[in-house]
C-alpha cells in the first residue's frame, strides 16, 4: 500500500501541474486513504498539504483551508516543523483569498517568527507578502517581494509567482516588463502543458489589450482562458475571464454575446460569492459596467457584493496605515478604487 500511495501521490502532482484538478484531487484522496490504512500519519498529513494546494489552485478555498488546517494540527503536534510551515503558508494564502485579513495578518506575524526556513519556504512567504502588499495597493513593495521570491525558487509553482509579478508590473505601468514576462511564460506554459498558468496569462493578455484600447485583439485570449477554466472547474478564473470577455464584447457592439456571458456569471454568483478571484475589484467593476448597460434593474445585487469587497479592503488599508488607494490607476483606466454607488 505504501508504494501504491506514493505512486498515486506522484500522479496527483502531475495532474496538479497540468491543471487537471478534479483528477488530482481523486488521486490525492486515494493516496490519503492508503496512508490512513497503514497508519502513516506523517505521510497522510503531507499528502493533505498537497491536496489542499490543488484545491486552492482550483478555487475551492474552503476545502483547501480545511485540509491545510487538519494537516497543520497534526504536523505541529508531531513537531514536524518544516511541513507544518508549509500548511501555515497555505492557511495564510486561504485567508488572503477569502478576505479574512485580520486572520491573515496574525498568520503572517506568526510565520515570520520562524527561525528555520528552507529557501523554497522563504520564497513562498515572500510571494504571500507580495499578495498582501497588492491588497494594500503597495505595488512597488509587492514587486520587490515577488522579484526576491523568483531568485529563491524554481519549483513547479514558479509560474504562479511570475503571473503575480506580471500583474504587478502592469499595475505599475511597466508595460515592457509585463509584456516580456507574459510572452516568456506563455511559451513555457505551452511547452510544459501548464493549463492553469496558460489560462491566467491569457486573461492578463486580454486585460492589457482591453485597456490599451484594442478590444478586438483581446477576444481570443479571453475566450481561451474562460473556456479552459470552465472545463477544469476553476470557477474564480472562469468568472474573472468571463466578466472581462463580456465587457470586451460590449465594447465591440456585440450585445447579444455580452448578455449571454453575463447571464452565466450572474447565475454562478447566485449560488455563492466567489473566493480567489485574481482581481475582485476589477471583476465587480467590469461586471457592473456590463450590467448597467444590459441589465440595469439587477445592478443593485452586484453593487452590494462590490460594496462589501470595498469596505473589507478599506478596513484592511485603514488598519495598516496604508495609502488610501488599493488599485493603481491613471486617466486611461477605469479601476480607481472607490465605493460602488
3D structure, described in words:
- The longest helix has 21 residues, at 299-319.
- The protein is mostly helical.
- The protein has three domains: 1-116, Tetratricopeptide repeat domain (Serine Threonine Protein Phosphatase 5, Tetratricopeptide repeat, Alpha Horseshoe); 118-193, Serine Threonine Protein Phosphatase 5, Tetratricopeptide repeat (Alpha Horseshoe); 196-341, Serine Threonine Protein Phosphatase 5, Tetratricopeptide repeat, CATH 1.25.40.
- Helix 5 (81-98) runs parallel beside helix 7 (119-136).
- The relative contact order is 0.08.
- Helix content is 78%, strand content 0%.
- It is built from 16 helices and no strands.
- It has helices at residues 2-18, 21-37, 41-58, 61-77, 81-98, 101-111, 119-136, 139-152, 158-171, 175-191, 195-211, 215-231, 235-251, 255-271, 280-294, 299-319.
**CATH third-tier fold name of the largest domain:** Serine Threonine Protein Phosphatase 5, Tetratricopeptide repeat
Tell me the distance between the termini.
59 Å
Assign a percent range to the helix content: over 70%
Low-pLDDT stretches: 321-341
| Percent range for β-strand residues | under 5%
CATH class of the largest domain: Mainly Alpha
Quickly give the structural class.
mainly alpha
Mean of residue pLDDT values:
87
Along the chain, the helix and strand elements come as: HHHHHHHHHHHHHHHH
Major sheet characteristics: none
